[in-house]
Amino acid sequence: MLSKPEQANMNLEQAREMRASGVSYREIGRKLALTSSQLCRIRRVLSRAKAARTRLNSVDPGATDRDLPVTQSALPSGLRQTLKTLGYRTLGDLADRLADPDFPGLETLPGIGPHRARLVKGLLDQFGLLAGPGDLQAAVELLFPEFQETN
User: Fold this and answer.
1) How many CB atoms lie within 10 A of CB 126?
2) Which pTM value belongs to this model?
3) 24-57 residues labelled b (16+ CB within 10 A) or e (exposed)
4) N or C: which end of the chain has fewer CB within 10 A?
5) What are phi and psi of 33, to 5 degrees?
6) Listed residue (80, 146, 149) closest to 119, CA to CA
């Protein structure tokens, strides 16, 4: 059985997929059996994420998901503030730090436990920024440094 935060995160992921396919919030609430407050939270998180992307694209039309500020991400407020305090400005900063082989893991940072680390990794995975064995672009950039993106 999932804990309440894990269930809320799973509901958010399912709602994000359903919303991307064009399902209304009312239908999402019915299909996932959400209360009005749970649905309101999902709507607020998805709206924040969409607004952050819109803001980023209006400031810098060539910006990628790596340039999205951590403070404007879909992470919970306390976690966003903790990451900001630890010096992570963008999702790209986080992704680079996680890809560093000398980095022991997010769980070792103060204020971030296993659940919060899963939230961060899930967000990075959603944007395709989480390096892994199937990360073809990272493998190509490692072999051919001239293909690396420069800011």
Assistant:
1) 14
2) 0.71
3) ebeebbeebebeeebbebbeebbebbeebeeebe
4) N
5) 55, 55
6) 80
